[in-house]
C-alpha cells in the first residue's frame, strides 16, 4: 500500500504520517525533510534551495522528483511508502504516477487534511518555538498557505477524478484524526 498525505503547512501531515508509519509499518518519505537535510549538510543542492524554501515557495518539480525516484525503485520501500508533502503540483502528480507505474506500483489512497489559515498560523507559531524551522514564522506561514492554495487545486482534482481522494477534518484532535485515518486505510486494505 502506498499513501499520499496532502494538506497545507501546519495541517498535521508529519504527525499523521508518523502515526501511519507506526501502525501500518510504512516508510515516511517527506520531501520537506529531504530538502532540509540538503541545506543542513550544506550540499550544492542545499545552497540552491535555501532562499526558495525560506521564502515559502516551491522548489522545482525536477529537484523533488529526482529526490524521490531512488526511494520508489528501492525494494525496501516497495508498496510501503507514505508520501508526505509530495506531490504538490500536477506535474509532480503525473511524474509520481509514471515512476510508480515503471516500478509496478500505484497509489492506493490520498488523504487530504483540511485546515483553515487561522489554524495554520496558530500551529506554525507553536512549532516555531519547538523546532526552530527557518520557514516557520507568521509571514512565511501565510505565504506557504497561499502557495499551497495556488498549486493544490489541480492535484486535488486529479486525485478526485481517479477516486483516490479522501478528505479528513484536520481541525479535529490528533487522536480523532488518527482514528478517522485508520478507518479509511482499513477500508481500502479490506
Ligand atoms: P514541508 O516540510 O512539506 O512543509 O516543506 C517545506 C518546504 O520544502 C516547502 O515550503 C517547499 O519550499 C519545499 N518543498 C517540500 N516538498 C516540496 C514539493 N513536493 N515540491 C516543491 N517544493 C517542496
What is the structure about, briefly put?
By secondary structure, the chain is an alpha/beta fold. The chain is built from eight helices and five strands, in the order βαβαααβαβααβα.
Total strands: the figure is: 5
Q: Measure the end-to-end span.
A: 12 Å
Beta-strand level of the residues, as a percent range? 5-15%
Domain count:
1
Instruction: Examine the coordinates and then state which fold CATH places here, giving the name of the CATH topology.
Output: Rossmann fold
Query: How many helices?
Result: 8
Sum up the overall morphology in one term: globular
Sheet of most strands = 5 strands, parallel
Average pLDDT, to the nearest integer?
Answer: 94
- Ligands, ions, cofactors: adenosine monophosphate
Topology as a string of helices (H) and strands (E): EHEHHHEHEHHEH
How much helicity do the residues have? 55-70%
What is the CATH superfamily classification? P-loop containing nucleotide triphosphate hydrolases
User: In CATH terms, what is the architecture?
Assistant: 3-Layer(aba) Sandwich
Low-confidence segments, given as residue ranges, are none
What structural class is derived from the secondary structure elements? alpha/beta
Describe the structure.
The chain has 190 residues and is α/β, with parallel strands linked by helices. The protein has a single domain (3-189), classed as Rossmann fold (3-Layer(aba) Sandwich). It is 59% helix and 12% strand. It contains eight helices and five strands; from the N terminus they run βαβαααβαβααβα. The chain has helices at 13-24, 31-40, 44-54, 61-72, 90-102, 117-131, 138-161, 174-189; strands spanning 3-6, 27-30, 81-84, 109-114, 165-169. It has a five-stranded parallel beta sheet with strand order 2-3-1-4-5, with helices on both faces. Helix 1 (13-24) crosses helix 8 (174-189), helix 2 (31-40) packs across helix 3 (44-54) and helix 4 (61-72) runs parallel beside helix 5 (90-102). The longest helix is centred in the last third of the chain and has 24 residues, at 138-161. The protein starts with a strand and ends with a helix. The relative contact order is 0.20. The model has no long low-confidence stretch (mean pLDDT 94). Bound molecules: adenosine monophosphate. The site of adenosine monophosphate has 17 residues, from helix 2 and helix 3.
Amino acid at each position: 500500500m502506498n499513501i499520499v498525505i496532502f494538506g497545507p503547512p501546519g495541517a498535521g501531515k508529519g504527525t499523521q504520517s508518523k502515526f501511519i508509519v507506526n501502525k501500518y509499518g510504512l516508510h515516511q518519505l517527506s520531501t520537506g525533510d529531504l530538502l532540509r537535510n540538503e541545506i543542513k549538510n550544506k550540499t550544492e543542492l542545499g545552497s540552491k534551495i535555501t532562499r526558495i524554501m525560506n521564502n515559502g515557495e516551491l522548489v522545482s518539480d525536477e529537484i523533488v522528483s529526482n529526490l524521490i525516484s531512488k526511494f520508489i525503485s528501492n525494494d525496501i520501500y516497495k508498496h510501503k511508502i507514505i508520501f508526505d508533502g509530495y506531490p504538490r503540483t500536477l506535474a509532480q502528480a503525473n511524474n509520481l504516477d509514471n515512476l510508480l507505474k515503471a516500478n509496478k506500483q500505484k497509489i492506493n489512497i490520498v488523504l487530504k487534511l483540511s485546515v483553515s489559515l487561522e489554524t495554520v498560523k496558530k500551529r506554525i507559531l507553536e512549532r516555531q518555538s519547538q523546532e526552530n524551522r527557518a520557514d516557520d514564522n507568521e509571514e512565511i506561514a501565510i505565504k506557504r498557505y497561499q502557495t499551497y492554495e495556488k498549486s493544490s487545486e489541480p492535484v486535488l482534482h486529479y486525485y478526485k477524478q481517479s477516486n483516490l481522494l479522501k478528505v479528513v477534518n484536520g481541525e479535529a484532535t490528533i487522536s480523532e484524526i488518527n482514528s478517522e485515518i485508520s478507518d479509511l486505510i482499513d477500508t481500502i486494505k479490506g
